[in-house]
Design goal:
Helix content: over 70%
CATH class of the largest domain: Mainly Alpha
CATH architecture of the largest domain: Orthogonal Bundle
Distance between the termini: 65 Å
CATH superfamily of the largest domain: RNA polymerase sigma factor, region 2, helix turn helix motif
Radius of gyration: 35 Å
Strand content: under 5%
Number of helices: 10
Number of strands: 0
Largest sheet: none
Number of domains: 2
Structural class: mainly alpha
Shape: rod-shaped
CATH topology of the largest domain: Rna Polymerase Sigma Factor, Chain: A
């Protein structure tokens, strides 16, 4: 983005307003930040208020009635106050949650990681089952179908379905006792 530096480019006579604003900010770079804090803005948000105020001032410099240092200070303070009020309104509509509430404690993170590892290994063990065992197991556990319903779907006897489910569960139990190792289940 290119800033308009002289007023000839802006289409208004250059009476030194932007130069005065630049000089004021250069001389006291923390002025708007301190003003924000004095208006009740938290120190963390004071830089945002100062930046917003400066940007608004730069964009509307032609509305300043008298380009004198005292007048500019008052005008800039009014813009900073309005920026602080706008920030307060935005924050009141969407209050931020405290960071501490969002962060889980270390023990729960470790527990979640351990649980995720176990679940990943369990899924891998299920994938490693032969298709003839995996399919009836998933149909009974996930879809909650009965052995006769599964038998009808797979065109096998209900006793065969129960036998395949039992073998799949036995293979998974062996894998579980082995700590969900990465060795293939047979």
């Amino acid at each position: 983005m290119r800033w308009i530096v002289n007023a000839d480019e802006a289409g208004t006579p250059d009476d030194g307003r932007r130069a005065l604003l630049t000089a004021m900010i250069t001389d006291e770079p923390e002025r708007l930040r301190r003003r924000g804090i004095s208006l009740g803005v938290s120190p963390d948000d004071a830089d945002d208020v100062a930046q917003t105020a400066l940007l608004r001032a730069w964009r509307s410099i032609e509305h300043l009635h008298a380009p004198e240092p005292g007048q500019m200070c008052s005008w800039l303070d009014t813009i900073a106050r309005n920026a602080a009020v706008d920030l307060a309104r935005v924050r009141s509509r969407r209050p931020a949650d405290a960071l501490e509430d969002d962060l889980p404690d270390t023990a729960s993170v470790a527990g979640e990681v351990e649980m995720r590892v176990i679940l990943d290994r369990a899924l891998e063990a299920i994938r490693d089952l032969p298709q003839s065992q995996r399919e009836p197991l998933l149909l009974t556990v996930v879809d909650q179908l009965s052995a006769p319903e599964i038998a009808e779907r797979l065109n096998v006897a209900p006793a065969t379905v129960r036998q395949r489910i039992a073998r799949a569960r036995k293979a998974l139990a062996t894998c579980r006792r082995a700590g969900m190792s990465e060795s293939p289940v047979g």
